[in-house]
Every structure is written in structure tokens, then in C-alpha cells.
Specification:
It is built from 9 helices and 7 strands; from the N terminus they run E-H-E-H-H-E-H-E-H-E-H-E-H-H-H-E. The protein is an alpha/beta fold.
Length: 266
Amino acid sequence: MSLLHKRTFCVVTGASRGIGKSIALNIAPNLGTNSVLVLLARNTTALAEVKQMLLSNSDKTAHTIQVIYRGFDQGCPDQQIFELLFSSILSEASVAASDFEQTIIFHNAGTLDNLKYCPQLDSFAKNSEYFNVNVAGLIALNAKFLSTFDIQPKVVINISSLAAKKPYKSWSLYCTVKAGREMFFKVLAAEDPSIRVLNYSPGPVDTDMLTYARNETPDKDVKEAFLAMNSDQKMLSADTTVLKLLELLEKNTFENGSHIDYFDVL
């Protein structure tokens, strides 16, 4: 049975740009009437622009779903931010958690910075900040999301990476958090098979993150590989990979908790 087209409470993290923005724009027309689409990111100005795009791109979207955005720093250790997030959104939307047929969260927010070789990662504070943004905050947000809603199905999508499976020199923190996130969601799927869990690796997507990687990666081999990929026009657009992800949700035949790469389903 499809995981689209139902009345859904849908959350997209990192929705201000790149893959998250594309998820928001492409999932909206596939949500059922009276759905609520929640956009989370740190940049509220960009989120407001995404909301305006959603409401102007489709009469269906403008008239049948609510779009709510929140400035949200996933790495902030203030527990109140997590405790109050969903209750405040439900209140703003004038709906109850039980009003929906299903819930979906796309865990897309993440960072690619602090690119260094392993012996250079000697700052406990910077390492902790990186893990807070990419892992600790995600886990807390996911737990609050699951506990807010009693309805089934609950759908949890982790935007993963080949870096969860393959080591990239000077990307140790990024590879570590991506691998850790995958295992966390595999455990979630094992604990509660009623929750539909997918680790989706979107392939090499032409986003600000990969532009940063091409410019700032200190390892020569890794940097040259991404430069070559760009010059050979092997990069994917965000919409291309997101539409493939929506196909997976439409078919809903993936093994629970599995890692699926864009190139696995061509």
C-alpha cells in the first residue's frame, strides 16, 4: 500500500535548500487533503520562500494542505526546543495528533564541515558540536516525533549517503555520523516493525554541500574524484533523486530499515 496520498503530518528537516527543499516541493502534491507539511531549518527567511513557492506552485497545495515552518537548530542542546516543537505546530494548525491517517518524517538536516584527517580532530568542543547537529539532535527529534503520534503507519526516512558505507579520506566525521544514523534507524526498524524505516542514499547531488566538498576537501584524491564527477556531468539534480525516493514510497515494497541507493533503483 502506498505511503503517499493520505492525510499526513509530514516533517522535512533541512528544508530551506538542496534535497530538503526538493522533498518539500515534491511531496506536497502527493499528500492527502488536510495534511500538514512542516518545514524545519535554521534559516527562516529561506523557509518562508519555500512556503511561498509551495503555495504559488499548485492550487491543490494552496487549498488542501497547511504549510508551517519553524526555525529549528537540530544541534541546540535546549531540551525545551524538542519538548514543545510538535505541540506548538499542532496548536498553530488547529489539529490534533489523532487527526491524521499517517505521519512521515524526512531526516535530511546535516552538515559537511570540519573536514580534517583523523589525527587533526583534537577539539572535543567542535567534535561534540558536530555530533549534536548530525546525530544527537536527530535522535531526540525522532523520539519526540514518534511519541507525539499514536497513529499507524509512522514513516521515517533517513537521508543517508554512500559515506555511510565507504570511507572517504578527511571525511571521518561525516562518514561516522552517516554510518551511525543508519545503524540507529536499523535498530528502530528491528525494535518496532510497524514503523516503516528507510535509509535512502540520494547519490551525488548538485547541492551547496557538494560544492563545498569540491572546494574544501583537503584530501587530494577525494577532491579530484568530486571535481571529475562534476566536470563529467555525473551529478544528479535534487529533483531527480527526490522523485526516485517518492517512487519508493509509492511502491512501499522496500525491506524495513534497509539502505537503498539512487542507483539501486534505476
